Amino acid sequence: MTFLIFWIIIVTDGYQNISQALYVPISGFISQALPRMRAMDIHEAIFAIPSMDELHRKEILRQLADRSIRVSTLPSTLELIDQKPIRQQLREVRIEDLLGRDTIELDISAVEGLLSGRTVLVTGGGGSIGSELCRQIVKHRPKRLVIFDIYENNAYDIQQELLYQYGRDLPLSVEIGSVRDPRRLELLFDTYKPDVVFHAAAHKHVPLMETSPQEAIRNNVFGTLNLVRAADAHGVKKFIQISTDKAVNPTSVMGASKRLCEMIVQSMAMCSETTFAAVRFGNVLGSNGSVIPLFKRQIENGGPVTITDKRIIRYFMTIPEAAQLVLEAGSMAKQNELFVLDMGQPVKILDLAENLVRLSGYEPYRDIDIIETGLRPGEKLYEELLIASRDIEKTENEKIFVEHQPVVTPEELAEKLEILRAALEKDPSAIRSALHRVVPTFREPEELNNAQGERVEIPPQQSVGCAQ
I want to staple 343 with a disulfide (CB 3.0 to 4.6 A). Which of 156, 269, 315, 465 is the partner? Predict the structure, then answer.
């Protein structure tokens, strides 16, 4: 329990400046302040202790949220330095402020040797993860940053943001094109001769890929194959594939396609001068298409907030955490590692929805309803980060681990890809059948969700330990 000395400031309708407000000092525990706030009919609070540690910060924010008090907060102490006046920096509490763990701080100093003075290519560089990678890469003074994306609007946005921040002398190039086009990739690699490639381009939306499986295979699987071959042929030093927890025991076409991407990277072991690796993490807060922006829009419109199933649990991380993980894992990569982040306890989607409603100043189920809409095609009740936890090895960073998988030989991969190519010439159901043949861990969602039983609880933390 945290002892505080703070002020309750009562502002009346007729006040003209802050000196006319009424200050009520209170000292004690946050639990002692809440009855005073209720008695005074206070509905908004400003959390203005930016230097407080995460554990006590979350304790206070959770108790305020439980009382449906709308909360604003200040940035961290470092963010306040040389920035705008404090009154302009108040922001709403973000849902990541209430995650069940501290924000993970990775050692990005190790990244300097990977990026400084190098030509770096980011595919999907306009997306949520890709654009954050670009923001962090430029801080390490690359020789040139090359952004490659099929969607020109996103690519333009990150280009203009970086040029505005760093000026026109920033060594930045933006190219529009698709990883599905081998000739376009050949021209791209011939032109820029990248030293490091971060592959973030992918179709990622699970329900959409269920109805368009051929696009998931062409873009995610064969697009990755095209890029891997180009990197190998042009002597790229390091190639980092962005993967997802949905690749673990996949129940969706998207998840199975990303598991195949991991296999493609694995198949390059001992076959290339390029160092290949993959990085796997969970859901990213605030990314395009994620639940948090959807919840916020629904709350702004008066509800209801929709969740597919109240039992669903997910691992979450912030966009900067995800990008930092990718960069640091890239600096560690030696050959064909599959990096996994210890993300702490998973979070119930229902808890996220309820907390966001409260932080917006409303009471769940009274002011804003929360309703179930049913699991979407390919959706799991819970995601996993590890395929076989017994095959886990520590790295020098206690939050990053390497999962060892059986080697996929080039011959085995070629056989799998041939099965997929044949399925692409048929109807979508043939693609799903082919995925079951080439991804041994691929299961139908009904099979896995039924096996989990009628009641799904947050499992004991999936402790990540060393192989014995």
Answer: 315
Tokens at 431, concatenated: 């693609």
pLDDT digits (tens, 9 = 90+) for 250-273: 999 999 999 999 999 999 988 899
Of 246, 348, 380, 399, the active-site residue reads 246
Q: Which residues contact 60 (CB under 8 A, 6 or more apart)?
A: 2, 4, 30, 47, 52
Select from 280, 177, 279 the least CA-distant residue to 230: 177
Amino acid at residue number 308: T
Does residue 399 carry a catalytic annotation?
Answer: no
